[in-house]
Amino acid sequence: NKARLGGGIYNEGFGFNTATLTVNNSTISSNTASDEGGGIFNARTVTVSNNSTISGNTASGSGGGISNRLTLTVDNSTISNNKAISGGGIFSSGTLTVDNNSTTSGNTAQEGGGIYNTGQATVNNSPITGNTASQFGGGIVNSGSASLNNSTVSGNSAPNGGGIFSASGCA
Predict the structure, then answer these.
(1) Taking the complete model, does pTM exceed 0.85, yes or no?
(2) DSSP class of residue 104?
(3) How far is CA 51 from the centre of its chain?
(4) Least CB-packed of 17, 38, 134, 162 within 10 Å?
(5) Distance CA 11, CA 163 (A)
(6) Other C-beta atoms within 10 Å of 147: how many?
(7) DSSP state of 15
């Protein structure tokens, strides 16, 4: 599948519509976006859960796997082998929660191989491993507010901030 926004899924409500989407025990793969969200573009609320996989997606801009503008929860799922300029796995300018042994791995970008956060990000009990960035933040770029709890950031690579490159907030 190909689109400008959301190669696989485009989630946005109109007006007062709250547009809530749950991706449960599913695979979103091999999609392309010419701008944002190779796998998923979210401007409302998305939950990716129960062994779902977002992999092999590409965005020419941000969010190879997922581009999040409002609320995204990744629970017990895998974000892997996605590509973008910013946020190979996930780009988030909203609220992001990665929880319950969710794996972010093998993603590539210029900045934020695994995750690029400009909003509020929380990573709980989840590994961020084996991601690559050609400039900043192999695992994570944070220019918002980020909290990592009982999580592993390892085996990532970038010229600046192999694991985490934080320009503001806390990590």
Answers:
(1) yes
(2) E
(3) 16
(4) 17
(5) 30
(6) 15
(7) T
Distance of alpha carbon 79 from alpha carbon 102, whole angstroms: 8
- Please list the residues that pair with 3 across neighbouring strands: 33
Please choose, from the candidates 100, 132, 139, the residue with its C-alpha nearest in 3D space to the C-alpha of residue 116: 139
- pLDDT for position 154: 98
CA 24 – CA 37 distance, rounded (Å)? 18
> Token pair of 151, please?
């999580």
d(CA 143, CA 145): 7
Beta strands in 62-119 (DSSP E): 66-68, 71-75, 78-80, 90-92, 95-99, 103-105, 108-111, 115-117
Q: Kindly report, residue by residue over 27-73, the tens digit of the pLDDT.
A: 999 999 999 999 999 999 999 999 999 999 999 999 999 999 999 99
Q: Is the pLDDT of residue 171 over 70?
A: no
Amino acid (one-letter) located at 41: F
Side chain identity, residue 129: T
Distance in angstroms (rounded) separating the CA atoms of residues 49 and 130: 22
